[in-house]
Amino acid sequence: MSVGWHFDELKDKAEQNADLLTKHAFENDIDTFVRETLQNANDARRDGYDGSIEVYYRFTRLAGDELDEFLKELDWDTGDSDDVSLKSHLEWAGKNEDDRQLNKFLRQIQDSGELLLLTVEDRFTQGLPGSETEDGTNYTSLIRDMGRSNKGDTEGGSHGVGKTVLWAFSGLSTVLFTSTPAEPETGETAPRFVGRTLLPDHRDEDEQLYSGNGWYGQVDHEDPEGRYVSIWDEDGLASERSATLYTEQGTLDSDTDIPDGMLCEGRVSGTAATVLGFRDPTEEVNSDEVAYEDIADQFHKTVARYFWPAIEHDLLKVRIRGPDDDEYSLVTPSEIPEVAPFVHCFRDRSDHVEELEERGAVVKQDVELNLPDKDDEEGKGKTEDVGYVSVYARRPGPGDDDTRLNEVAIFRGAGMVVDYVSMEKAAAYGSTFFGLMVAGEARGWGTEDGPSTADTQIDELLRTSEPAAHDEWKGYKNTKLGNKYEEGAPTLVYNLTRKTLQGALQDLVKLDDVEDDDEISAMNQKSPKLNVGGGGSSKTHTPSVESSDAFEVNLEFNYRGGEWVFEGSLGPTETDFESWEASFEIRTIGEDDTETGRIDIDELLPLEPGVTSRYEDGVAYLEATSGASSVSIRGESINLGSFDPYSGRLGRTKLLVEGNVDLGGGS
Q1: Which of 27, 389, 450, 640 has the most crowded CB, counting CB atoms within 10 A?
Q2: Spatial distance between the Cα atoms of 649 and 563, rounded to a whole number of angstroms
Q3: Are strands 434-438 and 407-411 parallel, antiparallel or unpaired?
Q4: How far apart are CA 400 and CA 360, in angstroms?
């Protein structure tokens, strides 16, 4: 039986396809690759299986004889034979394609003598069932139909473009698949093997036009056009191809607990996809050096960063084997400093307390939402009147990494962190924190009754709001959301991670009441960093606690009745100047003395004639002419509420003063 590559010949005036739509859907970086591949695996859970989906990332570096043998088995260069050569089509496409750098990558393989493969394998999933032509199956959705999705309403993805990251991250734009479907086609024996190349349409030396959609498989002799189809394991052919082309599905450990009915012909259902020439499309191709050292660590951190909810809830287990590793290593999010504080907040959410008095304490607020109905003429789109999302805040504990201090991880039932939303302004109302917004079906995790009807409806609403990259809950200018739901849905979603979240956090992290007359000094009263210069601004943005010789600064900085107040005088040390300008900014300080945020200044009153003030993004500016050698001022922050100044929870704060003195005379 003939096995090899096939590219359809096209008529000369046929419309030509140029590129993968993935490039125009979202940024193709490592984060995107991990998010999309894990999300697709998580969504492909086998019916009746309530254990953890297992995903394995396996890097293989080929060089020397191993690379030569692999390329031979791949029909890379068929020489003078009539068989189709993959290399030839890549070279032809490379002459026409705009930015996928095929020719550069081909030169890199030749110069380095190496090729990196990445196999992404999922287990206990549905696999790739379906015939070659049946619409809406896992097989045709992944292998044949680009940009189409067959997922349900509450699964992670919805646009059908996420799967194309496999090709976007292949320097050869080629991916091989081996699959054991949960339910193989009648009369077929698993596994199933197929290869797909997605190139621009291209011409050979004789100007014959070819489709860029290449297939690696076997000829379907029953098809009048002799199309190529996937290979089943008749006479062990699929197993042999998957083994020699590094796309073999792994074997289970002997102690793996497999539920009844989860094996198909002695195999666990699932799919292995091997990306040929794996590389980060955002990085410059370098033919002189191929760097693999940090790639496994990068994957570990990215998996933990975005999928710790799914891993913590036992929806997912992820293992990674780097290019130079002998064994797989399990991703454990609590061991990744950046996300560990969020994991601890999640684990302690059922033991929440009333106030953030102790380090590591967790507080909670359930936020009520008025749910919009679906825009359905038959009346089937009615939703519950109200639903809830849960907001948590955890006070930093000893040793917590502050990379994402004052950020909130937002996620729903898919178990993927959609985004980390910065809420620094909320921290100005009290304690610093690490936050969670748990929405949709994730609210029911760990509860006796599970998610409510409203939880499921909110999950669907938020899934609808997500763009192709699934990296935000988008309200306004979201056609899909507006078409599916009645008026009010865009506003609700837009406010959810802004006004709604901010209000909940301010209530959660605020400190105890204090009398209006109480006053507390900032731990760093003032932090002037001032410069003398010519006509242009020369101020530095480097934080400092040292005074400058350019200005004489005499300011008191205190907390009074819910506001940070600074008052006193300042002026240039030089007596001969044309004008000067100073800016005032209130910064919050974290546990390790690093700046964590800003408190907006609400008012700045110059108490001298010839001096003006203005405001930009919470920063106050003072401008003075040559007659203002010393200026009395008074400034106030926004009102933060009434706090107990002796609770130790107000937070460390400093006043940063920057400025520029124009000496005139071109100096």
Answers
A1: 389
A2: 15
A3: parallel
A4: 9
Write down the pLDDT at residue 543: 28
**Pick from 53, 67, 189: which is nearest to 116 by CA?**
67
C-alpha span between 643 and 110 (Å, rounded)? 67
At residue 337, the 3 state secondary structure works out as: coil
Reading the block at residue 451, the tokens are 């998610």
d(CA 411, CA 424): 19
Rounded to whole angstroms, how far apart are CA atoms 74 and 87? 10
Kindly report the CATH class assigned to 519-662: mainly beta
pTM of the model: 0.75
* 411 close to 418: Cβ distance less than 8 angstroms: yes
ω into 398 cis (within 30 of 0): no
Max intra-chain CA distance, the chain: 96
What is the rounded average pLDDT for all residues in the chain?
A: 83
Residue 505 confidence (pLDDT) above 90? yes
Estimate to the nearest angstrom the gap between the alpha carbon of 395 and the chain centroid. 24
3-state secondary structure of 588: strand
Tell me what the mean pLDDT of segment 375-386 comes to: 76
61 bridge partner residues = 116
Element (H, E) at 629: none
From CA 605, how far away is CA 657, in angstroms rounded?
Answer: 15
Other Cβ atoms within 10 Å of 448 Cβ, number: 5
453 or 540, greater pLDDT? 453
pLDDT value, residue 273: 97
Residue 365: band (very low, low, confident or very high) from pLDDT cuts 50, 70, 90: very high
Cα(555)–Cα(333) distance, integer angstroms = 46
Q: Is the pLDDT of residue 177 over 80?
A: yes
Give CA torsion, residues 644, 647, 651, 653, to 10 deg.
Answer: 70
Tell me the pLDDT band of 147, cut-offs 50, 70 and 90.
Answer: very low
The pLDDT score that the predictor gives to residue 652 is 74
Whether the predicted pLDDT of 357 surpasses 80: yes
Angstrom CA distances, 87 to 102, 197, 215, 269, stand at: 10, 11, 14, 33
Bigger pLDDT: 507 or 251?
Answer: 507
CB burial string 388-405: b at 16+ within 10 A, e below: bbbbbbbbbbeebebebb
Going from N- to C-terminal start, the domains of the chain cover 3-324, 340-509, 519-662
| pLDDT recorded at residue 285 | 55
Amino acid at 200: P
Give Cβ neighbours of residue 283 (< 8 Å, ≥ 6 apart): none
Residue 307: per-residue pLDDT: 98
**pLDDT value at residue 562:** 76
DSSP string, 361-410: -EEEEEEEEEPPPB--TTSTT---SEEEEEEEEEPPPTT---TTTTEEEE
Q: Is the dihedral of CA 143, 146, 151, 156 positive or negative?
A: positive
Over 60: is that where the pLDDT of 667 sits? no
Neighbours of 32 (CB within 10 A): 24
CA-nearest of 32, 6, 52 to 168 is: 32
The residue to which tokens 């909320």 are assigned: 426
- Mention every residue, 6+ apart, whose C-beta is less than 8 A from residue 289: 112
Output the CA–CA distances (angstroms, integers) from residue 315 to 88, 309, 588, in the order listed: 43, 9, 38
